[in-house]
């Protein structure tokens, strides 16, 4: 079976339970050698990933500020994290589907990451249900997917913008979110973020590894090229505080951290 055709089907799947199961099975089948990474010509290339009708998507500027000041705000925060993980499943699958010419190790990395993001989503949605809500009960935004689609022409741009920028920012902000959740009394939520933070270091590291690989293939200096890619995407330079330990474990050098 063709890996990229199978990945497209999972990426296009709108049903949550089916997508979660299919992402995990895709990774298992790849590990078992049941898929081949041959070229797949898609007659109708995807621009929109499959997603359920809810949550309703709003523009980021129209999203209400999430304040941990009561049960509703608590649930809204967990919902926002859950939505990030759902989007991350699609982003990992899209990397496999979109960039077929990269080495099989690239496909392995992002298939594994898709399965891990599916697990993260399951953990957070299950926790959200203990708060009396479910995924889809609050509005969300599609800005991360839209930004990713602006890099669909180039895997180097994708690796710079999604794992090395947005997911790396996740490393920075997660400890602060954990502290707020635990101070609010949500120990379980903080513990789930321990798992996610551990895995996300590996996800950023995969993005860093392939970003540097592509820079080497094109005879580019990775650190100034990263800053150029961020500027080209119209993104603000990351600001302190940085999670320096997590970022360095994920591949950022101390010199690059200082430059940022």
How would you describe this protein?
The structure is a single chain. This protein has 260 residues and is mostly helical. The chain has a single domain, classed as Ferritin (Up-down Bundle). 66% of the residues lie in helices and 2% in strands. It has ten helices and two strands, in the order ααβααβαααααα. The protein has helices spanning 3-12, 16-31, 71-98, 104-130, 143-149, 155-184, 187-217, 222-232, 244-249, 254-259; strands at residues 57-58, 140-141. A two-stranded parallel sheet has the order 1-2. The longest helix has 31 residues, at 187-217. The protein is globular. The model has no long low-confidence stretch (mean pLDDT 95).
Short description:
With 260 residues, this protein is an all-alpha fold. 66% of the residues lie in helices and 2% in strands.
Give the arrangement of secondary structure elements:
Elements (H helix, E strand, L loop, with lengths): L2 H10 L3 H16 L25 E2 L12 H28 L5 H27 L9 E2 L1 H7 L5 H30 L2 H31 L4 H11 L11 H6 L4 H6 L1
Parallel strand pairs: 1-2
Helix pairs in contact: 1-2, 1-3, 2-4, 3-4, 3-6, 4-7, 6-7
